[in-house]
Amino acid sequence: MYTYRKNIILTLSSFSIAVLLVAYFNPNYFQKIKKSETKLPNDIRWVVKSNEYEMLCKKIYSQAAIGTKNLYSNKRQAIIMDLDETILDNSKYQVENFNKGETFNMESWAAWVNRKEADLVPGVKEYIDLVRELGIQLIFISNRMDERLEATKENMTQLNVYDKKDIYLLRLNKEDKKDIRRKEVVEGINRMTEYGPFNVILYIGDAMGDFLKDDEANKYILPNPMYGKW
Question: Looking at the 3D structure of the chain, how many domains does it have?
Answer without folding.
Answer: 2
